[in-house]
Design brief:
- The chain is mainly alpha-helical.
- About 15% of the residues are buried.
- The chain contains nine helices and no strands.
- Helix 1 packs antiparallel against helix 3, helix 3 crosses helix 4 and helix 6 packs across helix 8.
């Protein structure tokens, strides 16, 4: 009897997982579609918003209701949609994990003393781990990208990559890149050092840290700002975009890129 009940719980968990997963995929696709349309009509939305907030609010009764609904959907649906996606993902996790554990208890005899309240904090811990892993992979991709850019720069400059290490080596000294860098500027050629310095300073400005920062300061500033602007906490308009910029700045300011900048 226990095994039958366990199988029923397992089947119910699978069903909830499939239903919630399907809803999440459909809603995420819809949000992505509306977001793309919103970007297309962004100039129109900007002009409309400026007109309304500059005293044109009295014109609203004379505007076509369908147009107002269209504007409201473009403005509100991406935010509300992603909020609902987060809610569905949270619900899917806590319900399915609870049911899977109960199913294992009845089917396999595994001890399951976890209360339902255990799964909320477990979900948040899992999401934090997933976000940290995603940031780690993004940092590795950033490092690999800039490593390849500088390596190609040295190859084309005639150095053949000689003296180029992960953080620059001799190539970043006065006698290494600066002379060639000045010649490239005079010739109007692309110079990765200028681009790198610009992105580095923009990343530091986003996190509000000095340019001679270190890895500890970057992590401290990131955690403070990420907690403030995380979409699950901050529901203000523009918080998601701000959070994305904070993440991009953190991904760029890896230990390798900090060392690379200091060697320039």
């Amino acid at each position: 009897m226990k095994k039958i009940w366990g199988n029923l719980l397992f089947g119910l968990a699978r069903f909830i997982d499939l239903v919630f997963g399907g809803l999440i995929r459909i809603l995420s696709a819809a949000v992505g579609l509306v977001e793309g349309v919103r970007q297309l009509f962004l100039p129109l939305l900007t002009c409309f918003g400026f007109t309304i907030f500059s005293g044109g609010i009295f014109l609203i009764p004379f505007i076509n209701p369908r147009f107002l609904i269209f504007i409201m959907v473009l403005v509100l649906f991406p935010f509300l949609g992603m909020t609902f996606v987060s809610f569905l993902d949270y619900g899917r996790y806590i319900f399915t994990e609870y049911l899977y554990d109960q199913a294992d208890y009845y089917r396999l005899g595994k001890d399951s003393k976890k209360g339902f309240s255990h799964y909320g904090p477990a979900y948040r811990r899992q999401k934090m781990k997933e976000e940290e892993e995603a940031r780690r992979r993004a940092q590795e991709a950033q490092n690999a990208r800039w490593e390849e850019i500088f390596r190609e720069f040295y190859r084309q400059s005639g150095y053949g990559g000689q003296g180029y290490g992960r953080t620059g080596g001799q190539g970043y000294t006065q006698g290494g890149y600066e002379g060639y860098q000045n010649r490239q500027r005079q010739q109007g050629a692309y110079n990765p050092f200028d681009d790198f310095k610009k992105k580095y300073k923009e990343a530091c400005d986003t996190l509000g840290i000095p340019y001679d920062t270190d890895e500890y300061q970057v992590k401290l500033a990131y955690r403070k700002l990420a907690k403030k602007y995380h979409p699950d906490i901050n529901k203000e308009a523009g918080a998601t975009e701000k959070f994305q910029k904070i993440n991009q700045a953190y991904e760029f300011l890896s230990k390798e890129n900090i060392d690379r900048y200091k060697r320039m």
